[in-house]
Amino acid sequence: MKTNPIIRCVAGLAFALGLAGAAQAIEVGGLKFDDTVKVGGKELKVNGAGVRTRVIIKVYSLVLYLPEKKDTTAGVLDSPGPRRFSLGLLREVTGDDLGQAFMAGITANTDKAERSKFVNQLAQFGEAFVNIPQGKKGDVITVDWIPDTGTVMHLNGKPIGEPMKDIAFYNAVLKIWLGDKPVDSSLKPQLLGKS
């Protein structure tokens, strides 16, 4: 029995659209993010997400991806395998201002002895932000931990800087939001999937 070519075409289109719909998106602060991502060959899922607010100004959306759900800071920091956080700007900001804010968050949540172990990576991290003259609303910075490679940063899909090797450094960056003195106390429970 022969199938009508139009029916085959419609069926094929419906199948293709079904596959396209398989990749879901979440909305955080008006920006869309994938609900799963592939990092280091492994699929990661959203652990939590929220918006960084300073006074009443929405600064950026933040999404944390892990291989498995974790609801404590220790669980996130000890999570084996790759990890990612995606930061979507909700207003214009200079790379310098963003870099200074990151450095202040790292300093507030680590002690001097801890920072001395990855001082070169801190300098490299700061340099990466200097190379972003002006961040625009909607720009997305991804920061991945890839075992055997290190911390890898991208701005809108383009690499920024070189990989930074130490897991302790990546964890220090995560402590900006998940440490004892998070930059935004309402964001911490959201990243841990508690709200």
Quick summary:
The chain is of the alpha+beta class and 195 residues long. Helices cover 36% and strands 34% of the residues.
Tell me what you see in this structure.
By secondary structure, the chain is α+β, with helices and mostly antiparallel strands. Helix content is 36%, strand content 34%. It has 7 helices and 11 strands. The protein has a 7-stranded antiparallel β-sheet with strand order 3-4-5-6-9-10-11. Strand 10 (150-155) and strand 11 form a beta hairpin. Helix 3 (95-109) packs antiparallel against helix 5 and helix 3 (95-109) crosses helix 6 (167-178). The longest helix has 16 residues, at 5-20. Residues 26-193 form the Chalcone isomerase domain. Residues 1-25 form the signal peptide. One of its GO terms (molecular function) is isomerase activity.
Largest sheet: 7 strands, antiparallel
Q: Strands of the biggest beta sheet: in what spatial order?
A: 3-4-5-6-9-10-11
> What's the CATH first level?
Alpha Beta
* Number of continuous helical runs: 7
Structural class: alpha+beta
Give the proportion of residues in helices: 25-40%
- Proportion of residues in extended strands: 25-35%
**Rg to the nearest angstrom?**
19 Å
Number of strands: 11
Second-tier CATH architecture: 3-Layer(bba) Sandwich
How far the N terminus sits from the C terminus, by CA atoms, comes to 56 Å
Order of helices and strands: HEEEEEHEEHHHEEEEHH
Which residue ranges are poorly predicted, with pLDDT under 50 across at least 5 consecutive positions? 1-21
Average predicted confidence as pLDDT: 88
